[in-house]
Amino acid sequence: MRTPVCDFVRDYAASRPVRMHMPGHKGNPRLGPEPLDITEIAGADELYRARGILRESEENAARLFGAARTLYSTEGSSQCVRAMTALALGHARDRGIPARLLAGRNAHQSLLSAAALLDAEIDWLYPEPEEGLLACTVTPEGLEQALSGKAYAAVYLTAPDYLGHLPDLRPLADVCHAHDTLLLVDNAHGAYLKFLPESRHPIDRGADLCCDSAHKTLACLTGAAYLHIAEGAPVILREQASAALQLFGSTSPSWLILQSLDRMNAELAGSFPGKLAETCRRLADFKAALAAAGWPLEGQEPLKLTLRPKAYGYTGLQLAEKLRVHGIEPEFADPDFVTLMPSPDTPAADWFRLGCAFRSIAPRDPLSGALPPVPRLPRVRGIREAMLGPREEVPIDRAEGRVLADTSLSCPPAVPVAVPGERLNAEAAACFRYYGISSCFVLQEK
To answer: Is the pLDDT of residue 410 over 80?
Structure first.
């Protein structure tokens, strides 16, 4: 498969031009990649008005993913989440449907910033009490009930989630489409799903729009992401997609990131599926060995290893520190979980070190303690009003009764304990403390 973006930039750098254009490093290597770091010079195309090499590269990606249209983002899936939301709200407005989404409660905070910027409201699908903050099982029956009698611009789901839960989206998509509602999927962790022996990618499972963070599971630079639009989605979505991305994107996209997306197309069309299948087999064997040794596992995602180690005698934070002693840095850890993310580029030596590390950790007496339930709080202000209003930071112990103004969470996992505009209570304060959050931003009182 051709890599037109990489080819253009490589040829340009090799011609040793006089760079009387940005960036200021003029191709002189300091970190190393500067000779390939360009801007939108003649022949290089424009990301949000792609007609040349970028459009060819995006069309290559669309064919690989089976999408009607695929567009690149150099600002991660967060930009794509905002663009998806804008597209869904615009389509709904044209049909007289209010600016309201129905979303799984384990959504990334970028959905909240999209709602604030676009003045949308969100009704939530809540997890079961025992699922905690990061999971949210949605059944076709539950979705049917939530959609009955109320019009939404779209249903928004996170799949896979941070813990590696991977729901079957097909029956959920069928429910959405029976109600003439779009299905939007945050597939940030699942770009590779298309290239399994049997695809489990949202575009193949009925989603109308989805985003993939290419950098999370593919060999792309951080910030590389895709926005996919399905063949069956309304045509207007693909026509307006570039404008929606531009609304939330920089006018100076990274050409290093664009090259990494372009280069990835050739790998996806070549060696990647075979390497992926081998890695999934290796991880499945590794999981089986851990389970046989008594380690409790979580989730079904074939390229993610999530442990729930309290039953083995460790909190997630303690296990993460044990792994760091062996030079192993996990993707994510909290009081209950540790998530590890290998990829087809994980070398054999790293798998060996990982196995040695786990074999060195002796079991201890199980730890008790259930996950705190996600608080269901009264919504007294809109998301936009709360996130854009005057705020102050207060200790969690003084936050009860106040209206939350911001999520107060880092990424990962960036799943909010409470939603801006909700009035905090003792249950919410306890949940904040459980996850180590000692202060939050609340609206100033008049």
So the answer is: no
